[in-house]
Amino acid sequence: MVEVYRERTVPLSELPAALDEAMHGALPLGCYATERTVRTLLLSNVGVLALRTPLSVGEAWESLASRYPLLAYHEREMLALQGIELRSSPDIRPLYFRADAIPEAIVAEGKGVSAVVVGPVHAGIIEPGRFTMSTGGESVVHLDAQLSYAHRALEPWFEGQHALALVPKVARICGNCSVARSWAYARAIEGLAGFELDAGTEFARLILAEMERVHVHLFDLGNIAAGAGYGKGTTAALGLRERINQLNRAVSGHRLLFDSIVPGGVRAGTLSDPASTRAILREIRVDMVRFLDEFFAKRSVLQRLEGAGIVDESLARRFGAVGPSARASGIACDVRALAPYGAYGDFAFSEVRARTGDVYARSDVRRREIERSFDLLDRALRELDIASLPMPAEIAAPPGVITTVVEGARGAESISLSLGEDGRVDRLHVISAAYRNWPLVTRAMEGNIVPDFPLVNKSFNLCYSCVDR
């Protein structure tokens, strides 16, 4: 499948109108800068469209975040990494900061309002982030999230390195998104090279992506169970995830499937026994169905999930939500259905959605997506069993600019890649689903009680490392 990537030059003064027009039927992805050029990205059923806006020397970027809140993080990142001056931004705090210069949290003020701070060091074995809840009694009236305590500045570090040498680095930006991001990166290089894969390799990539989706969704449901105080559910979910992780290692050599997708194919030796993999997944599925049925029949648990952390469709659209977090609010945004890639076009695929936008809806979307993933895995492994899986092809990394998008477990994962004549990276920009959804967590807590923060937060269960890249 040849990647479809289009660019259209739009002056800054005309960009709001152009965005309004382009967003009809399209999924906005965000924006990024290369020196004095800003590209605003959207995905539709015909591929990726980049609205290219050149800035003259000394020209400031007129912030669009008030009109399109989904661009707020992206604009602050352009200021931090490319030095693009922002004008009229609703949040002028640095997105990335040093330990000796942590910006103040934004808090609500008023009679009877106090602040409750969680983090940056947490009780669990998780990455750092500081959450400041402005409360009136037990009710949260505002939540401020400050991440980037472990910012790694990977994107500037990528520049000047050969694109093919970065394959294992891209795979390790985040453990929960490794396959999705590796697939997007491989597609970017293959798209620039005009390289098309054989059917067997496309089926293998789909299998790896769905195995990642299953283990991440099980991890998320286990954390939601923990947030609801349902210890048995947590143990069951993580036990099932462990079985998937062990199977991952058997089929790819790594529990989190690192390096299984590479430009030109899949790593040699991956999925060498499709029939055995299919049989093991069928055994796991029996126990998985039992767990899901019990979890969603537990009335005391459902009472905690229903009505908590509501995000309505309008709010989710304004903040550019993606993945289960968006589909739980009724938004159609699954890249596998919107712009099918790889072997997804070979299956009749319909995305899972809910309407209530609460913790229950986000849990239920994951539940049904796990079931869909097992269906896809069974069918794709059957196809792979009769298809030849070749060694990965050696391909060049030609010059050019491209953006590719895949559907990871938490939503749309995109790679924007600009290569020079010698295959070295001029710019490599990552937009992760977690990066897109973190601002929504802050709004989901409004009107909820303080003790529900772990539950609401885990119903998104977003990656810190994707933001701290």
Count of the domains: 2
- Report the biggest beta sheet as strand number plus sense, adding barrel if it closes: 4 strands, mixed
Strand content: 15-25%
| Residues in helix, % | 25-40%
CATH class label of the largest domain = Mainly Alpha
Mean pLDDT: 93
Distance between the termini: 29 Å
Oligomer: single chain
Stretches with pLDDT under 50, minimum 5 residues: none
Number of helices: 15
CATH homologous superfamily identity of the largest domain = Cytochrome-c3 Hydrogenase, chain B
What is CATH's topology name of the largest domain? Cytochrome-c3 Hydrogenase, chain B
- Helix-and-strand structural type: alpha+beta
Order of helices and strands: EHEEEEHEEEEHHHHHEEHHHHHHEEEHH
Q: What is the CATH architecture term of the largest domain?
A: Orthogonal Bundle
What order do the strands of the largest sheet run in, or round the barrel if closed?
1-4-3-2
The count of strands amounts to 14
Cα gyration radius (Å): 22 Å
Shape: globular
